[in-house]
Structures are given as C-alpha cells and as structure tokens.
C-alpha cells in the first residue's frame, strides 16, 4: 500500500487553552494528555516544598501538611469557577496533585517507614483511608438524614467501612439498622460480635506476629463457619458483609464501584486474606489484584505502573516512570532527594558527573530559573547540590533579567552571600553601564563602588571631567561634593573630588589653601597629564592677584610643571597637523602663563626677602 | 508568636499597607492592600482580616486574610500608599503612577487616574520607586532622579524637579506639610522645601563613612525632626535633621538590605524594620530617661538585655533631654517577629495592634496582637 503524504489530522484537545503546558505519555493504542504543573496556580506548592530540603529531619510530614492547603485552594477554585473549561483545567490539576500525593505517601510507607510484616498492612490501610475521603462524605450525608438506616446509601456506607477495615464505625452504623429490625436482633448481635472480635496487629504490644497469625486464623475460621451455617442467609446485606470478612474475592470484585481502585482492592484483599503479608510478597498480590480488577478492556494507566513499581520496591523504576509521566522535575527531584537522604538510593554515577539525586535537582532547579519569579527558589536548590550546584548557579544567575534596581540588588545579595565576586562585578557593570547610558552618573558611581570597580569609576570621572571641560561647570555637584571615602576607589575619582574641592576653596576665597591644593594635584601626579593645561590655566587668576599667593618655591614648581608639559607636548605633537587657530591659542596661553609666573616669582622673591619692619 | 497567621498567596509581595482607620472610631485595622512584583501579571489586592467574622471560615484560622478583590497592575508594584479610605496610589516599575479606587459595595477595583510615563529616561522607562501622599497631594520619586508632585483629580503634574538627584532616589516621606525627605543610593538624606522654587535641596545629610545606599526612611510621628533610615548594609540610623549633618545613632539591625522602617504611628517608642535577610524586627525602647534610647547617640550593637522598666510617657522636650546628656541609661529591646527565617521580607505596615508583612516567599503574615 502506498503511503499517502497528507497533512496529519489536527485533534483539538478539550479543556486545554493556549498558554498551558501539556504533557503526554504514550500508552498502547492510547495517549494520555494532561496538564502539567508548570503553571502559576500550582506555583504555591513550589514555595512550600522548597523548604523541604533544609529540613531533612521530617520532610515527609512537612510535605503532607503543606500540600493540603494548596490542594484545597485548587479545589475551591475548581468548584467556584464558572467557566467550564477553566473548571476542568483546575480539576485536572487537582487530580494530578492527588495522584502525586498518593505516590508520595506510598513511597513513604514502603521505602521510608519500611514497615515489616504486620505493621505493613496497618500502614497500607492508613494510606488507602487517606485517599478515599468520599466515604466520610457519604456517611455524613446518611447520618444527617432523617432516618439513616433507611437512606439508600446506608448499606454502601457500611460496606465501605468494612472494606476499609473501619469496623468500629461499621458497627455503629449497624446498630441503627438493628434497632429498626428487632426481629433480626440475634443476627445483628452475631455480626456485631464477629466484627468486634476481628484481631488487628498491635506493633507496640507484646504479641508476636505468629501469635497474631494464630488468633487471626481462629477468627477467620469462625467467620467461615458462620457462612457455612447460613447464619446470615436471611439478610443479604449481612451475608455480603460476612463474605467480605472471609475474604471472598468474587464478592470483593462485585463491589468495584465501592472500591473504585485496584489498590484499594489489594489492601482489602490483604486485610481479609493475608494480614501478615511481608513486604517482599507484596508485588505478587499487587500484580494479581491489578489484573483481576481491570477487565480485559481497560489498560493500566501510568499511575498504575508507578504504583506497581513501588510495590515491587523498585525505586529506580518509580523514579523513571514518574519522570516520564509527569512533565516536570518537581516531584521526582524531591522524591529522589528524600530517598537519597534516607540512604536508599545507591548512587549511580552518571556520565555527566554527579549522582542521580544531584542530576535531578539540577535539572529541576535549572527549570525553575527560567521562570520569571521562581529563580529565588532555584538558588536554594543549587546550594544543596554539592558538586555542580555552584557552577550552575554562577552560570544562571547572570541571566536573570534585571528590570529594576531592586531586583538587581536582590540578585547581588545572593551572589555576595556566596562570594561569587565575578558575578557581582559583571552585574554591577551591567547596571552601571545602563545608568551611564541614561546619564545617571550618581547611580553609575554607586554601582561601581559596590563592585569595587576602579576601572569603571575612572570612566565615570572621565565623563565628569569631559562635561566640565565642555561646559565650564560641574554637573551633579551633590555627588562630587559628597564623595567621601569612595573617592579613593580610583585615582581619577580622587582627582575629581580634589579638583572640585579646589573650586570650592576658590569660591570661598581661601586662595592660599586653594593654591596649595592645586599644586599638590600636579606634583603628586594625581592629575592626569591631559588636564595639566587646565590646571595651569586655573592657576592664572591666582597668579594675577595683587597679593602674592604662590611662594617662590611654589612658583618654581609651577614653572617646572609647565616646562614638563611643554616638552612632552612638543615631542608628541611634532608633526601632527593642528589647525592654526588652536596653535595660536595654545601659544598665547603658554606665553601668558610664562609671563604671569615670572611676575609672580619676582614679587614672591621680593616679598620673602623683605624684612618686616 | 501564636498570633501570627501566614497565608500563601502565589505571588511575591512587594508592598503591604493597612487601610487607614479614622481616629475618631476605635476601629481596629481590618483591610489591607498588597502589591506584587516579579510576576508576568502583577496585581494589587485588597484583603480583609474580618473581625466581623461573616465570611464563614470554619476551617481557616480566625484572622486568616480573605481576598476581597484584585486588579491587574502593569509592572512591579514598587510602592503603594493609601490616598484615602477608598483610593490607593501605586508606583510602578514602568514609571507609571496610578490611582486605584476600591469600590466597597461591589468589591471591585477600578483605575481612577494614571500618569503613564511620569518617570522616564529619554529613551526608556524609569521605574518609579517611591510614593507618598497627603491627600490630595501626591509626591513620587524614581530611578531617574526626579521628584514629581501631582494632585489627585488633576490631569497634569503640578511640579517636576528634574535631576533632583544624580543617583536613584529610593524613598520619600513628608517631614512637614510642605517639606519632604528623600534618600538615595549614595547614602544621602535630602530635605526639600516644596514652597521654594529652586531645584536644589535645602539640606543634605549623609553618613560620614562609606556612602552606603539608603533604602527607606520614616519620620517620628510626634517629633518631626527625628527621622529613621535603613540602608543596604542593614544599619538602622536615627537622625536629627535640625542638628548637624550626620546621624544621631547607628545600630546594626540586619545582615542584609533593610527594606522598610516604620515608627509605630501612635506609640512611637516602638519601631519596626524588615529586611532582605528574612527577618522582621520589633524595636522597643524602655529607657529610664524620657527619650528613647536610640536617640541617645552613640553606636549600639544589636540586642541588649531586657529591661524591667516601663517606657516613660515621652513628652519631655528632646532638646532638654539631650542636653542633660545622660545617654547610658537606655535599654533597647529587639524581638524577631516572624517564626522562622523566610525569604526576604519586602514590606511591613503597622496600625494599632496589627502588623502585616509580605515576603518573597509568596506569603503574607498578619499579627493581630503586637505588644505595643
């Protein structure tokens, strides 16, 4: 048959709107499509679960306590929302969360609590009861009705209680029926006795497992005898309960709707047939229950295979299946981490370096980093990956988009706390460049101070000086006047500060100090050579004052500076083409300076030589 | 500590503010507003801690904040203030200043007024970092170093001080009805007199040491010359703006940036600070002399011993107390208000006995029995 090249048919997936993340898993002949957890509404859980890692002591319970709140919120939203599609979306999310909790709790029971035979069943009973809350709802409904014993769901509730091993509650319910049928009182009494005598293993007690087993077998025989004697033959409901108590598989299977899941079936069957089941035997029963429960038409879902793998105590298979079924790393990363902390995972050394736990955590955290607001959480995860966490963090933290200064400050704080000085410098440089581009020189300086970036500080000072040369005044005086110790960050910055100080002194007419400062700027080589001409020009008015300000020595030094400047200029500019006007101005300036210096020198010598009368 | 309620809200909270209660009624604070940041879609929300218990929350804790309504907000909410009982003003990272109105009957929010690009660079948006209001006047500051004065219900801006600062202005507060105080990222506290037409501050104060950026500022409710600031290094500084240009006292408060500092509005012997390091501190003075100890000058390292002395009435004139020079008798008590270390606490507000704060851990904490 030839293959026809056609466009594949487009299948619209209901309840999935644009922008949501879908995951899928191939099954034989089917494809499971579901919403993944990479959505804002499920985000609350990330926050709370992330505190799991530091508190390893009892992370499982913290997960259990924190998850319900989020689940409730989701359920509330699912119920309250009016739009059907949105309701379905949230409903899907809720079911995924429920599935996750189911798996998590089972892992706790099997791997972490690692209960031995006897208590194993008790834990499994707890597990099933935790995840089958509709019984309580129905029971409440029945009890709140006028005549509970005549409610149509009454027997369903009683049977459900028995299936879950909640015999006390079953007995209480039966009492109500018994009062309605005084004629059958003897029968009800018998049933009540049977139910009350069912032995439950007490792990803390003195009874050994063998003793318990013997006791249980006696009870089981008694129930069987009742059945054979047809003691409950007249009442089909009580007969049914008796059959359940004896562990009749067919009866159990008839109540698939009440059991609703194969694992409930499994636990019930174990309760009434093999209460002393050992952990190693679990998977035989699990497999057979699964096969029995599902009819030939329905196929196991991914959840089922995960649970089965758990019953087989195959941790790696569980992790693998979860990774495939759930489209993000959240659950798997946490589960693996938990198991790793309990030393249950043999560290596979993966080719990409570290062990499985770290790999999964790194994957998860990297995913978090790409989220616009969960990057702060990811930092914590990276902290807990001893081998590669820091490297990953260093690479990722620079990619966080910095829209506001406040965000940049938070990122910087994270880097500084971990001594990532390279990243600090690079982030500060980005912010400083941005500030410079927007002409916020103060901000730019503040960023370079934080990064202790002398080179950048020099750049900023150059900008200031250029501005000054161009306009004749300083911009941003509030900054320059108040540099403080930051001045020492770079030479150019120091010069800027001191130069401004000179201007201030001049403005206050403190000429002597001003002149001293000016001289020191040149002689101490703080001023860049390019600026010397400007400084000398600034000295001109001081030289021209009536009063002698520069002493003879100082004047000599000034002259020396001028000559030095001239000689360097001559050597550098020899041969360069400069416009005639510039040269003229320069020449004039120099001549004026020479004249002023000479005159000052003369006056200074005279003044110093004069003896005060 | 048991009276703290935590509520997880799936959004990082950048600001939280109590709705003002009228002084005549002895009402407790019951409604607060929050703003979020760093989300794709940020929002402002109004919450109630209903003492009217009508919301029928059987399972939830009493005092668990209930969401009343919320509204989309363009950009991060960098600051939020109540203009009056129904309106809030927000400062956005897009440079916009917006007034939202909360309609109590229908529990909806609508945009009442907006100045879209109030703060800007020539070619880009500049985040508006702080807003303060004294109805109907609104003053905002931003990363562009501008101070802008608006009037609610008037279209344009009333006054702009361009290039008021060469660095980012982080926060602003009123000193008097016509004077404002700004703090910037080179560690300066600037006083501006809005009656003057000049574009330069009337006073500049700064720390004499390193130019550590200052992030928050608050004024003592009764003594208008006393101002507290917090900065990048987590130091709490108390200044007297009449005297000198350096702070009066410095205290090591936090190990990271201090985001907000608040004097308690009716009981100013109490001060609250919150920080990037995830802690919220309650500072309480109990000094023998009448002035709070953090006004007694000098450098205190963090917590000191508890004092059995009750705080005094505090009406004595500060000048006298300062001149009397008895600065060694003060005791400062500091307590952590949050049960455990969280991610950064970005904002706090306190009114009466109620305190609300928001964190980067997507949680809001409400404490209804603050010991003041």
From TrEMBL, chain A:
GO cellular component, one term: nuclear pore outer ring
A GO molecular-function descriptor: structural constituent of nuclear pore
UniProt-listed GO biological process terms: mRNA export from nucleus; positive regulation of DNA-templated transcription; protein import into nucleus
Domain of life assignment: Eukaryota
Residues forming coiled coils: none
Annotated keywords: Membrane, mRNA transport, Nuclear pore complex, Nucleus, Protein transport, Translocation, Transport
Record localization: Nucleus, Nuclear pore complex
Similarity field: Belongs to the nucleoporin Nup85 family.
Subunit and interaction comment: Component of the nuclear pore complex (NPC).
Record function comment: Functions as a component of the nuclear pore complex (NPC).
Protein name, entry field: Nuclear pore complex protein Nup85
Protein's organism: Dicentrarchus labrax
Gene: nup85
TrEMBL record, chain B:
PROSITE patterns in the cross-refs: WD_REPEATS_1, WD_REPEATS_2
Ranges annotated as spanning the membrane: none
Entry superkingdom: Eukaryota
Spans of repeat WD: 207-249, 251-293
GO CC, alphabetical: nuclear pore outer ring
Compartmental location: Nucleus
SUPFAM superfamilies given in the database record: WD40 repeat-like
Record keywords, A-Z: Nucleus, Repeat, WD repeat
Protein name: Nucleoporin 43
Source organism of the structure: Dicentrarchus labrax (European seabass)
